[in-house]
Every structure is written in structure tokens, then in C-alpha cells.
Amino acid sequence: MTPNHQFRPTPPDTLLTGWFVAVPERVTGGNLPPTERLTTASACLIDHLPEDDSWFATAEEARAACALLPIPAAARLYALLIPADHAAGFVADIRASGMHEPALLSCLDENRSEPAPQPTEGGTELGWEVIGYDMGWVHTWLCNDLYSDAVRELGVHTDERGLLPDRHPAERLAAWANVRNDTKPVTWVPARLIEWDTPLEGLPAPAAGACDVPASPSRLRGLFRRSAELGTAGPP
Question: 168: Cβ–Cβ under 8 A, 6 or more apart, which residues?
């Protein structure tokens, strides 16, 4: 079962990384866990709104960006958090990419004068995944074809959202992925997701169900780029 814990205050060793709006999707095939509601911070596998890989520094910015859109009924607001001791590697990859993500860098700015931002109350803690930043995109371990190897070698298990149950297996998986030479050249870090069940109240009624929302051109480009790197024929 998916964890269904009301959000508690962020532990002092965990940093809010950014906000995004996304549509969990049914994903099958390829080297992926079977799931009806895959949920990830990576737009490689699910749609982000208002366009793929859209990141925001606050929940209010995320809501405002979607205010004039026909939002799918399944769209939700998410906060991404990473342990503080993994932030330096993640930020270094963002800066090294030459394609800076201002929202993520704003949240993770170690030189800020004000207190670090915190997620608002009312969210549900979902689980953990392993992410990395490359060429302007947040990637997940699942879009790097690591699932079967991780199950076999580490004994990891994912829930019906494709997420890991807690920080420990995410830490192990990140360390394991970082010593491999067959993934994207990123620093893999553990990350936690929090979901708000009704984040878009008052916005236009849904124009389509989640299953009817087509993949955007940017997402398709990312998927086909990944397929070309892996030598496969198309998106998973």
C-alpha cells in the first residue's frame, strides 16, 4: 500500500528542493515497475504542468502558472525534498549543466539570509525515489533502466506509485547507482515526495482525464533522446 501519512514538519537534515504540478500515469513495459499511478519528479515518465520539467520556488507560483490551464482531474501539486548532505552534489550538477534551474537553485541557496523554505501543511508523504540532474532535466533512476538490476542486486521494492518506502533504500540505491557506468552522468541523490490532494481548487474544470492528455513535444524529445542513448526504438 502507498504510505498515507499526513505531512510532518521537515526534518532539519532535509531540504525543500522545489515544487511541481504533475499527472500520475499508468506506465507499463520496459524496465519499469508495473504501476497504475507512477509518481516521480522526473518529466521523462509523467507529464508536468504547465509544460514538462516545470519547477517552482513556491506552491503559490505553481498554482499561478496553472491558473489559466484546463487542468486534468488527476493533476496534483508536489513538493520535492532531498537530504541536506546530498544537496551539494545535486546543485553542482545543475550549475555544471549550463542550463540552470532558477527555482531549484533558489530553494537550495545555502547563502540565503532568510530561513530555508518549508512545505505548507496538508500534504501527504508518499515515498522516496532517486533523482539526478542532467542537461536541464531532473531524471529518475527509473528512466535509466535500473529497476530490474536494483530488485535483483539490492532487493528493493517499490509501491504502486513506483516509489521506495523510506530513506534507507533510497540512500542505498543512490550509492549503488553512483558507482555504475551505464547511467546518465549525474550525481544520484535520494529524494522524498509530498502530494497535495486538491491543490488546484477554483481553476477551470478538467478538459480531459489524465489518460487523455497527450505527451508534450518537450517530453517526447526527452524520451526519444533517452531511447537513442540506450539504443532502443522508442519511449518505454
Answer: none
